[in-house]
Amino acid sequence: MNVDDHAEDLASDLGVDKAEVKENLQNLVEYSVPLEEAKRSLRRKYGDEGSSASEGPTAADIADIGPDSGNVTVTAKVLTAGTRSIRYQGDDHVIGEGELADETGRISYTAWEEFGLEPGDTVTIGNASVREWEGQPELNFGESSTVTKADDIDVPYEVGGDRGLADLSPGDRGRNVEAKVTEVETRTIDGRDGETEILSGVLGDESARLPFTDWDPHAEIESGASIRAEDVYVREFRGVPSVNVSEFSTVERLDREVAVGGPTRLTVREAVERGGAYDVELVGNVIEVRDGSGLIQRCPQCGRVVQKGQCRQHGEVDAEDDLRVKAILDDGTETVTAVLDRDLTEDVYGGTLEDAREQAREAMDQSVVAETIAEGVVGREFTVRGHLSVDEYGANLETIDFAESDDDPAARAEAFLQEVDA
Ligand SMILES: [Zn+2]
């Protein structure tokens, strides 16, 4: 059944206009309210209270819950409890979210009402519904559910939201991190209440560095500060996990300094299998300089690379010259395209943008610039630092450092021989 069918059923049940019901239902669903919860909410709105409990929930072990389980009753320990605000029908609505576990497994939840859940509580949740969220079943409970304290149970999972940055994944909620603010800037965005200031930057601890956004700027978040942030959630941003601090997060300054580790050294395969990684270091051979490298032209409005003065979005434009390299790096496990900006490209080219223009003018062919770059890098080993994103077109590394590997192959071969001899 689609939203239209549900709206039709609901409208005839409630005896109200279908178009109106459909609009309300669509609004709720667009704001990620599960369909069953949305329907219950509309029944309440139109004064039809009693009919929600008709589906008779059954007691379930968490391991047995699937997306089609319908309504269930579970007894579980609260592992994490996060808070977030969403808006529908013009009203802000505070929801709780996190993870629950029993002896058999764990499951994410969304609480559409305030139940005062705290990590470590054991509760029985009556008449929760199950929906699928990012391929996994998720427990939803709200006004038509009951939450009561139960006898403590032991679960084979960590209780509480404390995590190192390397252990955060998109979709995590109710997490607590202790980190150093290594970069921060104030930005103005067009938010749902008009222009709003937010903070964005980078957090680091010994395990990793990750981008963050603070949607409700906390004064404690200053460049160089070591902080503890409680109740943050994690989203994917350009292929890497991003820490989100909200109005419900608490942030305090730590009286110790959090040490920030260097980039994470990974093989290309490890990095690609993570589906994206922030601040990684890869070591491999450049096997090719791809088309679209060297002297290129960009649209002055959107920055896209243009061919023959034509931008895909803006048509004929007065294109601007730029330099970049797209180098295929191979470490024997997998390949990745390292994308170098103008500064890094000038380094590997050994000249400026103006030098590149002149070389192209003399040759009457701008591809000579890419050829010169290729001569300098293909077949050599580089240590490359940057942020990896993976999409359907492949793996790209937004490069921040690009340096020929220090370890000279002859010295390495010698060390290897000594090892063999020993
Ligand atoms: Zn354009």
Please describe what this structure looks like:
- The protein contains 8 helices and 22 strands.
- By secondary structure, the chain is of the alpha+beta class.
- The protein has 4 domains: 50 residues; 94 residues, OB fold (Dihydrolipoamide Acetyltransferase, E2P) (Beta Barrel), CATH 2.40.50; 89 residues, Nucleic acid-binding proteins (OB fold (Dihydrolipoamide Acetyltransferase, E2P), Beta Barrel), CATH 2.40.50.140; 146 residues, OB fold (Dihydrolipoamide Acetyltransferase, E2P) (Beta Barrel).
- The chain has a 5-stranded mixed beta barrel with strand order 2-3-4-6-5. Strands 8-9-10-12-11 form a 5-stranded mixed barrel. Strands 15-19-20-22-21 form a 5-stranded mixed β-barrel.
- The protein is globular, with a radius of gyration of 27 Å.
- It starts with a helix and ends with a helix.
- The site of zinc ion (ZN) has 7 residues, from loops.
